């Protein structure tokens, strides 16, 4: 469903990613693991057609991000960490509806999706309030709903639990399980090893722009004889010699 093929991304003389390849299967929750600055967000921006690979290619749902970017955009939902980019003067409902209209959804379809997402994310109590005064966690829920409003096949989540408290983060993990049961393909980026361990069976581990490992967590644990994912990460990184 997502195939990264020998991708390199340069910004001038700086190489953000170098010769990275991995594959995410349809219906899988796949972890993209690495410290801050490893290149995770750059990779996801290329998958979302915001950036163009310097070399190599990425296919999403069978479409090239280089040759068929519009087809890719129709099939993905993307949430980046950091600024959630909501319109502060609009209500949560209006923010979500606006993005639904951008995908060509009619009013009935939008309202149906908003109702479903509001229940899933427990947003009913603030759905019709302006988002300006919202807490970081409330805004993050609205941003997640906006990402999912058009019912995308492929969901790209870059540090999605930023700003969520323990209860909300647990609710988010339950939502991921629901989406996977619906057949969605989910790429989940994080430097939080606990989240990755709970949500993903397979991962790609990136350090300083280079792929260090792609495969199952079970195989990685067997390879190094360790169970703790934090220890595993540090062992792989230190072994990279970079």
From TrEMBL:
Record keyword Nucleotide-binding present: yes
Entry keyword annotation includes Transport: yes
Pfam family, one: ABC_tran
Name by which UniProt lists this protein: ABC transporter ATP-binding protein
InterPro entries: AAA+_ATPase, ABC_transporter-like_ATP-bd, ABC_transporter_ATP-binding, P-loop_NTPase
SUPFAM superfamilies hit by this protein: P-loop containing nucleoside triphosphate hydrolases (SSF52540)
Family: Belongs to the ABC transporter superfamily.
């Amino acid at each position: 469903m997502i195939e990264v093929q020998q991708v390199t991304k340069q910004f001038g003389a700086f190489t953000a990613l170098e010769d990275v390849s991995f594959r995410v299967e349809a219906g899988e929750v796949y972890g993209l693991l690495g410290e801050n600055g490893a290149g995770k967000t750059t990779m996801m921006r290329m998958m979302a057609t915001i950036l163009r690979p310097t070399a190599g290619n990425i296919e999403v749902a069978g479409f090239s991000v280089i040759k068929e970017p519009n087809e890719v955009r129709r099939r993905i939902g993307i949430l980046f960490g950091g600024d959630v980019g909501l319109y502060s003067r609009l209500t949560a409902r209006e923010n979500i509806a606006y993005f639904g209209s951008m995908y060509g959804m009619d009013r009935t379809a939008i309202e149906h999706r908003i109702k479903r997402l509001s229940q899933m994310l427990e947003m009913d109590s603030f759905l019709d309030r302006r988002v300006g005064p919202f807490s970081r966690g409330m805004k993050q829920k609205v941003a997640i709903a906006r990402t999912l409003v058009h019912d995308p096949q492929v969901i790209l989540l870059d540090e999605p639990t930023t700003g969520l408290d323990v209860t909300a983060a647990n609710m988010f993990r339950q939502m991921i399980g629901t989406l996977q049961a619906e057949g969605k393909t989910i790429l989940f980026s994080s430097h939080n090893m606990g989240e990755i361990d709970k949500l993903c069976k397979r991962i790609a581990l990136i350090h300083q722009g280079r792929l260090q490992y792609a495969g199952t967590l079970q195989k990685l644990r067997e390879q190094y004889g360790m169970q703790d994912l934090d220890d595993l990460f540090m062992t792989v990184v230190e072994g990279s010699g970079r």
